[in-house]
């Protein structure tokens, strides 16, 4: 069976999607020029959430999605403790980003160091891209994915 798409409308559909992306990029502000961090310590929650999610996922056997959901939900409810705290209002994003890292099912000798280093890489990326692509879906998962890839590359180069 031939799996290639050979329809005369495909190039036009691709061109229309590209045109729509250009229009949306021009019309809506995806970049902000100021950092919205009150404190840089917010990014420390990324590796913490990653380790906790990994433990729930692999030691309790609840699964990656359910574990990330638990940690993300708990992170979102932290604002209820003190609704006037700006720090707690900003903490849900980094916690949920770290939960994506903890969804991994790796099992080797240095897995905790790998998760912590992935959390550190992701925290650096999170801080660097805080004012970029605001409102664009998938940013936290993409940052976590890139952090895990960088960490795996580092461990592959060091350990072999």
TrEMBL record:
List where the protein spans the membrane: 6-25, 37-56, 62-79, 110-128, 140-159
State whether keyword Transmembrane applies: yes
Q: Which UniProt keywords apply?
A: Membrane, Transmembrane, Transmembrane helix
Lineage, top-rank taxon, reads: Bacteria
UniProt-recorded name of the protein: Uncharacterized protein
